[in-house]
User: What shape does this take?
Amino acid sequence: MQVVDKSGGRYKVLKSFGSFSSDAEHQILLNQAQDWISRHTGLQEFDFLNSDAVVEQFFDSIQSMRRVGYDLLLGQIFNEIGFNKIKDPYFRELVLARVAFPKSKLKTTEYLFRYKQIDWDEDKLYRYLDKLYSSQKDLVQLISYQHTNQILHNSISVVFYDVTTLYFEIDQEDDLRKTGFSKEGKHQNPQIVLGLLVSKNGYPLAYEIFEGNKFEGHTMLPVVEAFKSKYNLSQLIIIADSGLLSKSNVEELQAKEYEFILGARIKNENKSIKEKILSLNLKNGESAVIKKGALKLIITYSDNRAKKDRYNREKGLRRLQKHIEKGRLTKASINNRGYNKFLKLEGEIAVSIDAEKLQQEIRWDGLKGYLTNAKLSKDQIIENYQNLWQIEKAFRIAKTDLKIRPVYHRLQRRIEAHICISFAAYKLYKELERQLKQKKATISPLSAIEIAENIFEISIQLPQNGKIKKKILLLTEEQRLLNSIFCFGC
Assistant: This one.
């Protein structure tokens, strides 16, 4: 009796066990051969005649079961972006966890220990945050820029800028966290201002944080100038909404010979310009150009925008009228911004809606303006500005999906490190989104992350030789679909 290998297409004798002359001898040699095969090929033999014993034997051989879906999906993209150039496990795990499990740093360490058997000392983690702030922040932004430049085929010529505010649930201000105008309505809370620069399609390029009382219009030029200088870019077209529109900003942009497209506050124009705008009588989808010195004011009209303007105004007026009828209109509410501008005060106590102001407001429904000096066609200017929603989406993702706030840190360098990790996590999220779209996948980034959450790897120790065998468990159709898209381990 012989054990023969024919895997290579040719027969090769691996072991001889002699000959037999009876059924009893045949069974003895057969048992010896099967035992030899088990010991020399690493196969585990189960007694299938006893199913309970098989199950118990299998369970006893399990060494560990580890959640690996995030590493397989997000770790692969992390490397493709180039973040693996930062040879520090803290950075990798913190960025992946910010996408997969966006919690406080303390909760993150508990998560890593529970699901990945990574035991981090909290003090070492905070020392790493100091290192990230002092020596790795610029590298993170450089890697993000280089990857974005690559996927956009070296054509970063248009950038979008916007700011948001992140408040802190504390009472005392410090050098960074100060009270100011809050986009989240938390005017009584100290906050910071976060400025973000993105490319077409919303890929992150650069960011900076400012004191909480900093006027947002004064944040744009420092970020754009630093970005342009750092990467030696010859020319950029800057696109920003009307919140960044100020006389000083426009003058500085012109002085530095930037091209720009800014949302215009058309209702604040002088009387002559406003009369020209209202006399255009534009129809749905139409646009026109009004010269404004060396600049152009492009006006567009949309039925959908008019419908939205009308809905918002009527909703605000219904609320206002309700307050008037119930006598609940206070001095504070009168001073509030919004639709209270339609209030008419008669004598000392008579309050009503000013119908004349209301009719004047209706004339502006559906109109939108863009102030620009860009050497682009009118349609190109409108199209580029309409991509500004991508940066609004970026802030929404950062605040809801990546939970950039609340920020649990007090020291500025650790606040900066937290923002840096969130910036890298957003880049990771956007690349996942891009690849899903490129691969024509029908699932969203959030769905992909949720599916990956329950992909585990099982480790089994073979009893014959003690070797460890590992197997990724793809147990559902969704998990197998995700694997077919990203080819884990290929």
The first strand starts at residue 2 and ends at 5.
